[in-house]
Amino acid sequence: MKLARRCCLFSLFLILLLSEYFQNSNEQIVETLALGSILQPNQTLVSTNHTFSLNFLSHGPDRNYLGVSFSRNFAGRQTWVANRNHPARDGAHLRFSQDGNLIISNPDQTSVWMSGTSGRNISSMLLQENGNLMLTDNSGSPIWQSFDYVTDTWMPGMKSYFGSTIVAYKSHTDPAEGRFSFRMLQTTEEVSLWNSTTEYWNSGVWTGHGWLGIPEMKYNTIVDFFFWNDSQRPYFTFSERKSQTTMAHSHFVFDSDGTFYLRTWDSINGLWYVVWKAPNNPCKVERFCGQNGICKSDSTTFCSCPQGFKPFDPTGWSQGDWSMGCVTNLSWDCNSKEFSFLSNTYYDQGSGVGSSVRSYSGHDQAWCEASCIRDCACLGYSLDGGSSNCSLHYGPLFNGKTSSNINHNFFLRVKYIEQSPSNQPLLPNRRTRKMKTGWIFGLVGCTCLLLVIALLLWRVPPRKRFGDRQSSEYISGILKKFSYKELQKGTGNFSQKLGTGGFGSVYKGTLPDNTMIAVKKLHNRKQGDKDFRTEIRTIGLIQHVNLVRLRGFCAEDKHRLLVYEYMSNGSLDTRLFTKPGEQQHIILNWDTRFAIALGTARGIMYLHDECSSCIIHCDIKPENILLDANFCAKVADFGLAKLMGREFSRVITSMRGTRGYLAPEWLSSLPVTAKADVYSYGMTLLEIISGRKNLDVNSDLDKWFFPLWACQQARLGDFSSLVDIKLCGNFNAEQLKVAVLVAIWCIQDEEINRPSMARVLQMLEGTLEVTDPPFPKTLSFLRNNSELEHSKLSVEKEFPTGTIHNTDIGDFCCGSDLQNRIVLPRIQTTLG
Question: Which of 356, 415, 608, 738 is the most exposed place for a label (fewest CB within 10 A)?
């Protein structure tokens, strides 16, 4: 019976879905709507270039909403909704009355919404190319416009007045006003995000060029902000950068999950791209998962219920509205001594009504559990895994979070309900009869379903059946599983190689929809198919504007391939360094280099601090920093460290050509932390500044190991001598000094002396003062070694050009201890 019911329900769902498709395929395009005209449910009013459309969208039976949307060419989404709090019934229409009023009416002519513009000399209606719906008079002056009634989207040119709010959808499928709001505060000229009456994010004060709490906005290349200090009604607005070529239609969206983000259209890949968001972790949103709910930032659904609990509102929960939280069919009383164990989980309570936490130090689990049992109001207790700290929790449980980074375990107080007789298993003969009946109805239902599918697909042209399948997968963020033949065909049998690294070779390719991709063919793979897919799904959830996006994978037989977005400007090393005989590429100016340094730091910081667990890249170098069409830096191969598992440390120490970027702890078998990436970043930053390799045996004797010379020049205050000569002196002196000092801090020998990537980013952005770093011990020893120059000459004399590689000398200089670091004198003595 269950099988039959499921087949019938699925058949009904499919029929409704396909019928909606056919209904959309029959829609009529309308370019103007005159006074007295009606916009029917199947009609669409379009802007001049068909970028935006005005029509009805349905979110279910009798839940229709009139709004402005991006056209289907831009994976349309409503940017403005007229009747968001008052859904119209099926068959509703929009009437542009003779007296200039817009009215949404149900089939029985009851009014759902109106613009309130009767008798204001309105003569025409216009949907502009910026998405603004306007009612104008005879002179063309706007009398009413949708930009004055913001829903959840802030478009370029929209004015956000002080005291105004932008309210998020209630859920992904319900545009009604939800619990999250975006507010402009007049007193401090700042913006903030609120969950009902609780503020959970703040931008900081306006500095005249940006907000203090959003330093990255100073370096964005997408939009420009403006503040108009109108004496009557001050407001903020923004516009798109005119220099944008592949990115366009940028706007801010306030999502129903409480996240406020800037997104832009990538015309090359044909998808929307999130450039920035706040807060960067949805689990930071106050009461994000409701009462008892638990948030996990690296999950596609974010919220889950503890064991034994279920969503209070299953329908809203499935649609992304987690505000109602979780309930349970378990109960507890004052005599309950049972607890449900939740590992790496903590409820910080926040501002929940009646919620409180009492913390005690110096007590073990037995004491904590006994204390909770004695108190009837205690709902559970938590233990700090790193110390003997115990916390008792009272009142509703809010702000539950789980992550491998959380060093707490939570014990939820419950008592299981005994199974009722109605839940007992059926008698064998009755169960057998029901199973037989279920199979019969199931087969009949599935047969009907197949006939319906065949009939409907027969009516649809082949292009419409399958044309948008791939793009929809990419837009939804789902990783696509490719076959080896698909990638072999898309890359021309792997004929156009883009580069080769320690993990495999990268090839240029094209998908059937003409999207450019880069395919990485991994070699020496021993990991099982199941483990590989598990890791791929984890990496697929990691998305950031400064990380190269993973689009899909192939795990077929012995083949393991990764499919990434294609970066048209290649890797950073090809833009910085020119090999003998090569034609000089476009020279990166100072502003672009500094923006690349910032973008790279943001990408690494995301891996370290903002993922559910810290991911150490382990291979930061210019070859792994890719540049898109706008020279935005994107860190590549950020998932391979995780993919290689236990093999990784062995593989990395055997790699040639990258040891010059490895931190000393790699070469001395010490524990490797995220500070290893900081060291590599420091070495890379010096190369971005100088435009030359850190190791160059063909350079002058005092410059052959650039980090040493850079430290010496920094001590003398001569920072300008470190800049790439190709820039001809065009650079920002203040930014240069900061970048050099930050780089020297990053390449300190002891990992404890290096800053975290978060602090590196703060220093580069100017929100944290940069102090003078100490001279690294290794470089200090090199500087004071009197045999250095003679050793250099001896090596060049004894070994012909090309037999000693830059990376070999780099390993000597960056060894695990001072005795092994300075090996050049030993080489000379041995050969002498």
Answer: 356
Contact 298, 292 (CB under 8 A): no
3 state SS for 130-197: CCCEEEECCCCCEEEEHHHCCCCEECCCCCEECCCEEEEEEECCEEEEEEEEEEEECCCCEEEEEECC
For residue 49, which phi and psi values (nearest 5 degrees)? -100, 15
Give the gyration radius of the chain's Cα atoms. Answer: 31
Question: What contacts 408, CB < 8 A, 6 or more positions away?
Answer: 344, 345, 346, 382, 383, 384, 385
Instruction: Write down the number of H helices and E strands in the chain.
Output: 22, 42
| C-alpha closest to that of 383 among 411, 404, 413 | 411
619 is catalytic: yes
DSSP class of 515: -
**Tokens in use for 380?**
């559970």
CB 160 within 8 A of CB 148: no
Dump pLDDT digits (tens) for 637-652.
876 665 554 344 433 4
CB contact at 8 A, 79 and 153: yes
Give the bridge partners for 185, in sequence order. 190
CA–CA distance, 47 with 125 (Å, rounded to integer) = 11
Q: Report residue 8 CA to chain centroid gap.
A: 38
Query: What is the edge-to-edge ordering of all strands in the sheet holding 78-81?
Result: 28-30, 43-46, 52-58, 64-70, 78-81
Count CA atoms within 13 Å of residue 652 on its CB side: 26
Length of the chain: 832
For 501-559, the pLDDT digits (tens) are 767 889 999 988 778 899 988 876 555 565 576 667 667 767 788 888 888 888 888 88
Name the token pair of 234: 């001050």
DSSP for 637-669 reads: -TTHHHHHGGGHHHHHHH-SS-GGG--HHHHTT
Options 619, 628, 724, 811, the catalytic residue: 619
Strand order across the 165-171 sheet: 165-171, 174-185, 190-195, 198-202
Beta-strand ranges (E) seen in 52-98 are 52-58, 64-70, 78-81, 93-96
Q: Which residue has the tokens 């005989």?
A: 581
| 710-719 long-range Cβ contacts below 8 angstroms, 24+ apart | 710/686, 710/740, 710/743, 710/744, 711/744, 711/775, 711/776, 711/779, 711/783, 712/783, 714/740, 714/741, 714/744, 715/775
Rounded CA separation 407/511 (Å): 44
Domains of the chain, first to last: 1-27+443-466 (no CATH), 31-147 (2.90.10.10), 150-287 (2.90.10.10), 289-324+330-416 (3.50.4.10), 468-566 (3.30.200.20), 572-774 (1.10.510.10)
Structure tokens at 48: 């001049």
Q: Which residues pair with 192 in a beta bridge?
A: 183, 202
Using pLDDT thresholds of 50, 70 and 90, give the confidence band for residue 243.
Answer: low
- Read off the pLDDT of residues 461-507 as tens digits, 9 standing for 90 and up: 433 333 333 333 333 345 788 999 999 999 999 999 888 776 788 99
Q: Where are the strands (E) in 405-456, listed by range? A: 408-414
Task: Confirm if 622 and 614 have CB atoms less than 8 A apart.
Answer: no
Q: What are phi and psi of 91, to 5 degrees?
A: 90, 5
